[in-house]
Structures are given as structure tokens and as C-alpha cells.
Amino acid sequence: MHVSERLLQLYATLDRQTRDIVQQHIEENLADGKSLAASYHELTRETNDSLSVEEKSATDFSNWLKEGKTDVDLLTYYVSVLEKSEMLQSERVMPKTSKPTPQPVSEPIVPKAVVAPSPEKTTEPEIETSAEATSPKQRYVPESTIPSRTERMKSHREIKPARPRRKKSRGWLIGLLAIILLSVGGYAAYPMVSDLITSSSTPTVTEEPVTPEAEPVAETNALEEVWIGVKNAPLLSEPDSENVVYVADIGDRYDVIEERDDALLLDLGLNELTGWVSRDEVVTKWPAASISDADVLDWLSTSVNQTLFDESPEAYFEMDENELVGNVGTASGFDSDALHEYLVYPGLFFTMKNGQVEAIDWSNTDQTKETFLELGEPTYETEDGVVYESDTYSLRLFVGEDDSTRVRLTKLDK
301, 325, 331: which is closest to 313 by C-alpha? Predict the structure, then answer.
């Protein structure tokens, strides 16, 4: 049985005074702060290996009571102590707890990291050598032999006077070059002129590029809604978190906001609350109604305790708290979580949402899974849960670990 179910059953059997005494003992024991396992041992003189060894204080416990009991460790601890409430009431004087003397803890000496100096780059001087070998510079240039006077006179006689230079006409050369250039230019320009003439008379045809057809992509429809497919499914603040926002029950329907790998983000339908759930704990298709409204109401009239009711159970749906108390009396207990408030009465409790009755639960019933299935073909079934749905109502059976059963009647949203 899930720990939240154990808490609701304890609230249905224990009065408010007993719960207040247990809470007072817990706050006194946790005043100095200690692990939940140690606190349980001091209060009950028993050990419970399922309890957390994380240290908690009285302030943590008080805040947990006020904030909706979302911490699973404190919830398990609180339920375990509540189950020992008779023993706590019989003891007038609580066992004194000796506060352990704190041992001085020497701080570990952290060796300073030794940083090896980086090797310095050594540059060896480059020896530049001139590419050209330096030759020894001559101190003087030897003079040439001076010719004799007879030789100078001989060479003078052989020198003839210079003739005047004739002006040559270059006009014919320039004309030849012009003819050559015009011939070459006309030959080179002929293809372009020909293209201009033909292009003006012939229309140009442009071919449009052919785009290849895209391959069809398989469409994947995004999930819009899911139903819880297990008896109890914790909804988490993050996919890998241990922080439980709310515990959903088999048959609960939610809208899907986001998909991420193996997790889905669900809209809880109140105050913009959301929670992550594993894909393995939901179903994406929900069968149609399997029984009629009359079948549900007839079964309730003979199968669950209705001594508290003056009218048929369906008449209490959408009543506010004042109307409910006016009809069935003051509740013996009160509890709440992130989505609901619970008014607890002997043997049953009412679930309130947005200030109105949303569901009625009968705890510790005489029903078994076998007798419950005699109602007909179920809408959905697991090993520890069965759901029947009609057009208006959802009727569910929850089977605990000790084979205890709880029956819930809910009015469906249309």
C-alpha cells in the first residue's frame, strides 16, 4: 500500500487529539535536529530501516505539515510514528535524548599544488654569414701604356669626318601597322557582331531549373492526453528529480504539455501546476464506457457503507464545504496536498477540488478484487487496481499490500 493511502486510512481511524499529541512528540524530539531513523528509534524504541538517515529539525517538520506533505521521507516517517500512536499516548514521560558531544573534526590538510615551471625556450643565436666573399680591395689601378707621338699622329690621319645623318620617312611603316591592326581587330570582332545580329532576330528561351521532389516524411502525431496506467504514479518536478509534486492514481486523465525522451510533462489542471511522469506509467488510449450509470449507483447502494448519507452518494458531488458539513456533520480530520483538500470521516473521506466535492473514498471495505469484478467487464485492470467507467461516473478499486481495499467514486468531467 502506498504511504499516502496509509496516511489517509490513519486519519480516518485516529481522532484529531491523538494526531496533535503525536505531532507534539515529534516536534519535541526533533528540536535539536537528528536523522528520521534515529528519531523513530527514540520515540518507539524500535528500528525502521526504511526511514531516511538525513537530518531533519522540528522546523522542517512544521513546514512540511503546512506546505502539503510533499516530502516523501517525512511522509514515511510521520506515517510510521502515527502507527505507534497508542504506545506514545501510554507514555506520559518521553525518553530523554542525550545530545551527543560533538567531536572536533580536524580539517583535512590539502597539499598545495606544485606547479612545475614551464621550460623556457632557448634560442640559439643565428650566425649570419655574408653570401658574397669579400675580396681584397686593390689599392691602385695600374695605368695603361701612353702611346708615342708618331702613333697618335697616325691614328689622327685615319679618322674621317662624320657624314650628316639622312632623315628617313616612317609614314609607310605606320600605315602598314594600321592595316595589320584593323585586319586583326575585324577578324576578332566578327563573332560578337554575328551574335548580336542573330540574337536580335531569334527569341531566347530560358529553361527553368527542375527541383527534385522531396521525399515524403513520416508524420508522428504528438500526444495530447494520457491516462495513468498504474495504481499510483508519482509526478515529479523534473524527470530525474526525487521531488514529488503529486501522486496520481490509476484512471486519472491529464493533458500532455511536453515530451522529453522517456518522460512526459502533464498539466495537473490547477494553479498552473505541472509534473513529469514516466512513459511506462501511462496509457495513450482509454477504452469506452463499459457499464451504465445505473449499474454504478445500484452497486454502491449494496456494496459500501452508507450510514453517513441521508441521500444517494451522487447527490454530494459539487457541494462546497459548508453544504457538506451541513449534511453529514463536522469532519473528524482534515488533510491536503498540492491539488486537493480532504475531509475525513469514520470509514471514508471526501476529496475537495476548487472548493467542491470531486470524489468519495470508502477505506478498508469488505470488497475483494474478485467480488468487484462481478460487476462486469472492467474498463481497465491491473494486478492491484480496477477501473469501471460509465458515461458520468468512474468507479475504482485499489488493493493494498495487505489485501485491504479502497473504493472511489468520481464524477467525470464532460
Answer: 301
